[in-house]
């Protein structure tokens, strides 16, 4: 991928862009191989490669510049304001939307927030697109409600210019700190979710619910997990119960559950749980329970284990306490999806009752050192 900002030294966010993509993938696979070596995986599969550009369907832009000449991008380490509206990581469809966002900033007189002087209102523009429908979710992150009326006033103009805009909201983040979003979200459109569909599974994205930035590889990740689970059941019989901890909007669980099986999904964010429940209802799944609870607390209180436990924790991993509860509950099979192979390795060392069966890398984050890993573990007999 060629990026003029990287070549000019203006933006180094894609810190591996100086390496050919094949080399990037080799380095990631080598690192993963070293981290997994102590656990003697039965199969270390070939990595799932990414497209080299246009793969990122979620943008988080700092709003800089002025009301009349807004800049959407970053402040680089040299203190320069860099406009990344033409960043090649995003699909071509993002550029005209960024242009409309800039026009909206000027029309509505949304003053960019000045970090040094703690003045201004608009901090971030957060834009997501559905791979399935092509429709957008746009969020304005404000310091206060001072500009809320102006955004509402000019929103009909924006909707007229961008009929693909499904959901628009304002997020309030009053803290004078580099925090992306606050707790309060104000929906400005009749629609409060962005519909996505991966592998014929409907998923509904709300403004503060987590979802992968690269839906193409997310679809492959979910499909692979479903294929691995099906292979186990073809050999030993169907699972009766599946748990999906840190389930988000239900991506893994909804891909895995089969008719007649019970699925329990646990996620601390109520908005994500609402989305998962909607998807389950649309799929006609009756024996499914999604609950807004802390995953560690749920596991700690549980007395019986599922046949298959799915975990997709944040970068910090599962941690000692949750690993101990997994060992106590002793599910026969464990599917662990991780965005941090180092914390994954720490957790695998804690799960002494389990054998690592399969490992596969999914390169969600091309041109960086980050990647996603899917692992399958079996409890020792």
TrEMBL record:
CDD domains: AdoMet_MTases
Annotated positions binding S-adenosyl-L-methionine: 212, 246, 267, 312
Enzyme Commission numbers on file: 2.1.1.189
One of the Pfam families matching this protein, by short name: tRNA_U5-meth_tr
Keyword Secreted applies: no
Keywords: 4Fe-4S, Iron, Iron-sulfur, Metal-binding, Methyltransferase, rRNA processing, S-adenosyl-L-methionine, Transferase
Record GO terms (molecular function): 4 iron, 4 sulfur cluster binding; metal ion binding; rRNA (uridine-C5-)-methyltransferase activity
InterPro entries, per the entry: 23SrRNA_MeTrfase_RlmC (IPR011825), MeTrfase_TrmA_AS (IPR030390), SAM-dependent_MTases_sf (IPR029063), U5_MeTrfase_fam (IPR010280)
BP GO terms, sorted: rRNA base methylation
UniProt keyword Methyltransferase, yes or no: yes
Sequence intervals crossing the membrane: none
Stated family: Belongs to the class I-like SAM-binding methyltransferase superfamily. RNA M5U methyltransferase family.
UniProt name for this protein: 23S rRNA (uracil(747)-C(5))-methyltransferase RlmC
Native source organism of the sequence: Arsukibacterium ikkense
């Amino acid at each position: 991928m060629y990026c003029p900002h990287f070549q000019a030294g203006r933006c180094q966010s894609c810190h591996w862009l100086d390496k050919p993509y094949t080399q990037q993938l080799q380095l990631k696979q080598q690192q993963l191989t070293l981290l997994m070596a102590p656990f003697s995986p039965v199969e270390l599969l070939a990595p799932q490669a990414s497209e080299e550009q246009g793969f990122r369907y979620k943008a988080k832009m700092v709003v800089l510049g002025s009301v009349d000449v807004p800049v959407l991008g970053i402040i680089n380490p040299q203190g320069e304001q860099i406009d990344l509206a033409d960043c090649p990581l995003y699909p071509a469809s993002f550029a005209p939307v960024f242009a409309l966002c800039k026009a909206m900033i000027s029309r509505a007189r949304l003053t960019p927030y000045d970090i040094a002087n703690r003045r201004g209102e608009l901090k971030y523009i957060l834009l997501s697109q559905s791979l399935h429908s092509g429709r957008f979710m746009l969020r304005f992150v404000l310091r206060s409600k001072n500009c809320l009326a102006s955004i509402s006033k000019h929103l009909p103009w924006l909707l007229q210019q961008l009929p693909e805009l499904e959901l628009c909201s304002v997020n309030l983040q009053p803290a004078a700190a580099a925090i992306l979003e606050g707790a309060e979200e104000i929906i400005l459109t009749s629609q409060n979710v962005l519909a996505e569909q991966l592998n014929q599974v409907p998923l509904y994205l709300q403004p503060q619910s987590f979802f992968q930035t690269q839906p193409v590889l997310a679809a492959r990740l979910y499909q692979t997990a479903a294929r691995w689970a099906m292979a186990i059941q073809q050999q030993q019989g169907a699972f009766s119960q599946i748990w999906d901890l840190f389930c988000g909007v239900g991506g893994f669980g909804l891909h895995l559950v089969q008719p007649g099986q019970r699925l329990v999904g646990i996620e601390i964010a109520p908005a994500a749980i609402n989305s998962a429940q909607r998807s389950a209802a649309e799929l006609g799944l009756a024996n499914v329970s999604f609950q807004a609870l802390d995953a560690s607390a749920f596991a700690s209180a549980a007395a019986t284990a599922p046949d298959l436990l799915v975990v997709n924790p944040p970068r910090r991993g599962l941690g000692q306490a949750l690993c101990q509860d997994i060992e106590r509950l002793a599910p026969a099979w464990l599917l662990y999806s991780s965005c941090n192979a180092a914390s994954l390795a720490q957790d695998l060392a804690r799960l002494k009752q389990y054998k690592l069966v399969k490992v596969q890398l999914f390169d969600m984050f091309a041109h960086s050192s980050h990647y996603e890993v899917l692992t399958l573990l079996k409890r020792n007999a």
